[in-house]
Amino acid sequence: MKRTALTLLLPGGVSDRSAEVCLQAAFDEGRSPASLSALMHEAGERAGEILQRVDHSVMGEVAQARDELFVGRDPILLMVEPYSLVITGLYATADRDAETWGCVLLFTQDRRVKIKGLAEDGCIPYAPSCKAAKLDTAIQKDVWHPLEDVRKVIKDVEREAIQKLKVMEQLEKRLRKHWNDAVYDEWVELNEQFDHLLAQINQLRFWHECLWDAVELVDWRSGEIRDRALNQWLADETLKGIQQLPHPRIQKLAERLENQLSEMLTFLDGIAQPLADWQVQVEQHFQDPFRAACFQNSVARLWRLEHALRNGQKKFSKAALEAQQWLAAWIEGDPQIQGLAEALLSLLERTVRTSCAAETINSVLRPYLVRRRECTDLISRQLFLNLFALWFNMHKFERGPRTGKSPYEIAGIDLGSDDWLTLLGYLKEPD
Predict the structure, then answer these.
(1) CA 299 → CA 342, 392, 400, 431, distances in Å?
(2) How high is the pLDDT of residue 373?
(3) Three-state secondary structure call for residue 399
(4) Is pLDDT of 136 > 60?
(5) Is 398 left (phi over 0), alpha (psi -120 to 50) or beta?
(6) How confident is the model over 124-142, as a mean pLDDT?
(7) Structural contact between residues 10 and 390, judged by C-beta atoms closer than 8 angstroms
(8) What is the pLDDT of residues 147-197, one digit of tens each?
(9) What does 187-230 look like in DSSP terms, one character per residue?
């Protein structure tokens, strides 16, 4: 009965009253919402004890993505390892200031997580929280949010230009009916403003594409793995171009970009040494720098194109198929290099550029919180978060590159059982 009730909770997402109906139908015996809440609290306490005992040190040094989710005005603070999606910390708090985030960083390290870097968005408390926790580590600012900010500004300026165009059309109608010099002067002024806005929109679109290129890890056209110096130059030139556009919205955008730009390219620093070590192995195998470089570009281009396909960019399907065939020809001619190809693919996959892993977890968690009416105070909410974290870390992915494995399995964490309910003490009945 308890196993079924908790399964209705996770992954079922069934509310207490609906769970009561389900249990009545399955066992001819229901449980009141109060008893189901008591069960959740009991299981949440046990889950919290298990999570405290998990030894995350087996993952080695890992980056941590962090993000916030709000239930009303109350924040939930999340820490997650981006590659395996292991939730290393999930906390219901009363605020999200720097001291609270500093405590979260300390709690994460208490769970034997070796933090080699943080992936985060532009949230103001993040920087001082590292100082509060005395954590000196590399910071990777999320690259998606600034790019999305540029897109939003383009849309905003476009709407402003469209509004001016509508007013111009109204003035033109008035001029056709009756000529008026004052109306004509107004039309001329609006026309100049419209042309000026249109020019800024076109320039910002160009710089938007340049910014996309500046934060790329692999060039999808050539397979070249980007260099920090080159990308930094392109990013700096992009910022200079945006700063020259006088629109107030664009100027505010340039200020935000200037504050984050240096930390948006941290991922290129992180991959530099591992990539250099891999390149030594490849050159030793080929004994030819040119062939080694061609092989690297073939593998990296395949990774970039497959990454684009996973993100729904179907226009790259043909190019990805050709890249697969090209790499297969390399491996067929020299089967020993398959391990080298897999090593580079893994290296690229583990490179963290965004905090989207944390946002992915938040998107899974949010619908469950909507259905938990009893999670109105911090204690009950934290107990539910304990349950969610344990279930998520032990559930097996049903699709994507992680199919058939749980986050703990990918990370190499063994708790002695692959069944989260058994770990909580709710055993299966013998057959």
Answers:
(1) 9, 32, 20, 50
(2) 65
(3) coil
(4) yes
(5) alpha
(6) 96
(7) no
(8) 999 999 999 999 999 999 999 999 999 999 999 999 999 999 999 999 999
(9) HHHHHHHHHHHHHHHHHHHHHHHHHHHHT-SB-TTT-PBP-HHH
Domain boundaries, the chain: 51-142+354-423, 144-262, 267-349
366 Ramachandran zone, left/alpha/beta (phi>0; psi -120 to 50): alpha
Residue 80 — φ and ψ, nearest 5°? -145, 145
**Residue 428 DSSP label:** P
pTM: 0.90
The residue count for the chain: 431
| Separation of alpha carbons 358 and 361, rounded Å | 5
Cβ neighbours of 166 (radius 10 Å): 10
Strands 74-81 and 86-92, by their bridges, are: antiparallel
Tell whether the model's pLDDT for residue 201 goes beyond 70. yes
Q: Which two tokens stand for residue 256?
A: 């935000």
CA distances from 122 to 66, 94, 127, 237 (A): 11, 21, 9, 21
pLDDT of the residue at 87 = 98
**Is the pLDDT at 431 greater than 50, yes or no?**
no
Place of tokens 């030819």: 288
Q: Which residues contact 143 (CB under 8 A, 6 or more apart)?
A: 215, 264, 353, 354
Most distant CA pair in the chain, distance: 93
Asked whether the beta carbons of 383 and 424 are under 8 A apart, the reply is: no
Please give the pLDDT value at position 377.
86
Q: Are 106 and 133 in contact (CB under 8 A)?
A: yes
Structure tokens at 218: 């692999």
Note whether 59 and 411 are within 8 A (CB). yes
Secondary structure of the chain: what % helix, strand, coil (to 5)?
65, 10, 25
CA dist 43 and 37 (Å) reads: 10
DSSP string across 114-180: EEEEEEE-S-TTHHHHHHHTT---EEEE-SHHHHHHHHHHHHHHHHHHHHHHHHHHHHHHHHHHS--
> Cα separation of 213 and 235, whole Å?
9
Q: How is residue 263 annotated by DSSP?
A: H
Structure tokens at 133: 């926790």
CATH 3.30.420.10 fits 51-142+354-423, yes or no: yes
pLDDT, tens digit, for every residue of 403-418? 999 999 999 999 999 9
| Distance from C-alpha of 233 to C-alpha of 230, rounded to nearest angstrom | 5
Sign for the pseudo-dihedral over CA of 332, 333, 335, 341: negative
